[in-house]
Amino acid sequence: MNTLTKLTMAAALFAAPAYAETVNGLRTADEFDSITDEAARSAALFEEMFVVIESPRCLNCHPVGDVPLQGDDMQLHQPPVVRGVGDFGAPGMRCSTCHGAENVAFTTGKGSIPGHSPWQLAPIEMGWVGLSAAEICDQIKDPERNGNRTLAELHEHNATDGLVGWGWEPGEGRTPAPGTQDIFGQLTQAWIDTGAACPAG
Q1: For 31, 51, 101, 188, which has the most beta carbons within 10 A of its beta carbon?
Q2: Residue 97 carries which DSSP code?
Q3: Alpha-carbon distance 39 to 149, whole Å?
């Protein structure tokens, strides 16, 4: 990436938040059309995708270790659980022991038990906690670290997968992911269409 491209991208990222309209904290893909350098626009689009990716709704299920996180403050899961074979929990303490097909409100007090079928951790090679936008971008383009997905399949995952979509309807007691799944899917497609460039490391 040449110096002019870097400066163009930096200027766009710095200026855009002051003028752009957002949908629940997420800019839409067309708001990046003014970035004329395609690689810079692509990297800026991924930075906007990262606004969703770095949400606790995503990171809690993408740990770099074998223990999921929970809550907006990303605490270790309680009761204590581990990844287990296939990312569904250990025998006798499978994710489905507590997590059903839908969110269930607490019968006493505020809050809810999250639910979706299936409910599971992302594979360990897809761990995101503590990684930068550049590192995650590189990771999700690598079939060996993204569930063996093509970019088209990655778009489908981001845009239509129900477990991904749960992040915007997480039940009482949790902050939804920024924006909407539809906008996240559009950002993903626009990022792919512009070359799937990654932000500078």
Answers
A1: 188
A2: G
A3: 22
